[in-house]
Write a structure and sequence with these properties.
Blueprint (H helix, E strand, L loop, with lengths): L8 H11 L5 H4 L10 H12 L10 H14 L7 E4 L9 E6 L9 E6 L18 E3 L2 E3 L7 H17 L7 E6 L12 H8 L1 H4 L3 E4 L4 E3 L5 E10 L1 E10 L3 E2 L8 H12 L10 H10 L5 H10 L7 H10 L1 H7 L2 E9 L5 E2 L2 E10 L5 H12 L4 E6 L12 H14 L5 E6 L5 H6 L4 E3 L4 E2 L12 E3 H19 L3
Helix pairs in contact: 3-5, 5-16, 9-10, 10-11, 11-12, 14-16
């Protein structure tokens, strides 16, 4: 997953410390309580998966898929229910599909999706070996400890636990452990995309549970909120370029390509797209309002009012937090800049890359036109780079929300469940575009210092891993029905 976004930790933390909601997760991991049934086996499975290198450069998702298949086979899953799908000419990009059969063929399956590939990690940069699971100070440290091998290991362990418990769902449960998520739209071998194009019957589902939601707690382990991700912004970039005949630097002229581009970028910096909410972001601000002091809560409710956002409230919230600003509007920002070709020559060209995160449903052509107007110079060309992966939000299912909310209330009383739109990207967008709704739901609580996906010393709180396993065990059973 590219980015995990939530509320501003500090304000939320104060709200819940004051009211005393929830169970202290961090404190619970410090106790000497006896291990839960199956904890040792789950810890071993998680360790095995984390320590299989699945980076693009040196790893193998196929090895991870086969390792997890072996665990399921040992638990009694038939060969016919286990499939390692490897794209031709890509022997290391294997995907595991496993099925726990249901009893009612008229009900479409639920997909349990997690990717097993991870981003690169250099040993010399990390405090610990990134490809050895280290437990220290109440945390698991390793590349993939959080993103996304925690969820992958949980799904595998829970399928084993369902089998052990004799649980039979009403509908099939399809586990999909996939490759190349971290390369996203840039990879034709992205596991979800490839399976949809070549093996869709194996993953046909009514909806999917995936990463992208998560949950938040304070530094001291007090739960704050649990998120259900049901939408993502669309990523698209534009190249801006100014060209000039150039010449000798000893003979400056007024039409300098670098100055021309810089002036256009300065005007672009003041571009602000209008505030717009959809079902997901409206729910996000309405449910979040209860966590804040009166002024912010009032602004959130005014932003989410029927009839459209209040402009003054939108402006105040945008100034308060870059996250709020990004949740309510399309954003475009310059991310790369280059110009000139020699230290003693006038620049013949200057270029910039502008990266936009577009609200679902907003036309990409309209975004380009807005950039052209803001730049205000016909001498600066604006060219779209690549094709974005468009994605519409998944409508919030009442049955899913009921189960998530009741399970959250049982495990962590008093904390709200908040729908959210990711400003980053997950594989859910491929499913949504294929007509399979997807929801980011994990129950994995992270504190303000724990969001280290893709970064140094990635970690997962130990107690959060156990809590997430139990949460997903109950949620999936609640959604799939059965006995």
């Amino acid at each position: 997953m590219r980015i995990n976004h939530g509320l501003a930790f500090g304000v939320c933390a104060l709200a819940f410390v004051a009211t005393g909601h929830g169970t202290d997760l961090r404190a619970s991991q410090q106790t000497s309580a006896p291990p839960r049934a199956g904890e040792a086996a789950f810890r071993s499975l998680y360790k095995e998966l984390v320590e299989i290198n699945t980076t693009l450069s040196a790893g193998s998702c196929t090895a991870a898929a086969n390792a997890m298949k072996a665990h399921l086979a040992k638990a009694g899953y038939a060969d016919s229910a286990l499939h390692v799908i490897v794209p031709p000419s890509r022997p290391k990009d294997g995907n595991l599909i496993a099925v726990l059969p249901g009893t009612d063929a008229s009900l479409k399956p639920i997909m349990l999706l997690a990717h097993v590939d991870v981003v690169e990690a250099k040993r010399e940069d990390w405090a610990r070996d990134p490809f050895k699971l280290t437990e220290e100070g109440g945390y698991f440290y390793a590349r993939g400890a959080s993103d996304d091998k925690a969820m992958a290991a949980i799904f595998v362990a829970n399928l084993i636990r369902y089998r052990r418990d004799g649980y039979v769902p009403d509908r099939d449960l399809i586990l999909a452990l996939t490759a190349d998520e971290e390369l996203g739209s840039s990879s034709r071998w992205n596991g979800v995309r490839w399976l949809l194009e070549h093996e869709r019957p194996l993953i046909e589902a009514e909806y999917a549970l995936n990463e992208g939601g998560g949950a938040e707690m304070t530094r001291t382990g007090t739960p704050i909120l649990l998120r259900v991700q049901a939408a993502e912004k669309v990523t698209v970039s534009f190249r801006l370029e100014a060209r000039n005949p150039g010449g000798h630097s000893s003979l400056p002229r007024p039409d300098n390509a670098i100055y021309q581009l810089a002036a256009g970028l300065d005007r672009l910096s003041r571009l602000e797209f209008p505030a717009q909410l959809n079902e997901i972001t409206r729910g996000y601000f309405l449910r979040s309002a209860a966590l804040f002091e009166a002024a912010t809560a009032e602004d959130m409710r005014a932003l989410a009012r029927e009839g459209g956002p209040d402009p003054a409230a939108a402006a105040r919230l945008s100034r308060r937090s870059p996250l709020y600003n990004s949740m309510m509007r399309t954003t475009c920002v310059a991310t790369r800049l280059e110009g000139g070709h020699a230290g003693n020559a006038l620049p013949q060209a200057a270029r910039a890359l502008v990266n936009c995160r577009v609200l679902p449903g907003e036309p990409i052509d309209g975004v380009r036109e807005a950039i052209v107007r803001a730049v205000g110079d016909p001498g600066i060309t604006v060219t779209q780079t690549g094709q974005p992966e468009l994605s519409q939000p998944s409508s919030l299912r009442p049955d899913l929300m009921r189960v998530v909310e009741s399970t959250t209330a049982a495990l962590w009383p008093g904390i709200p469940v908040i729908p959210t739109m990711s400003t980053g990207a997950t594989d859910s967008r491929f499913l949504r575009n294929a007509g399979i709704p997807a929801y980011g739901v994990s129950g994995l609580f992270l504190g303000p210092d724990d969001a280290r996906s893709h970064g140094l010393n990635e970690r997962m709180p130990v107690a959060s891993l156990w809590g997430g396993q139990e949460f997903l065990y109950r949620v999936v059973k609640g959604l799939a029905g059965g006995r």
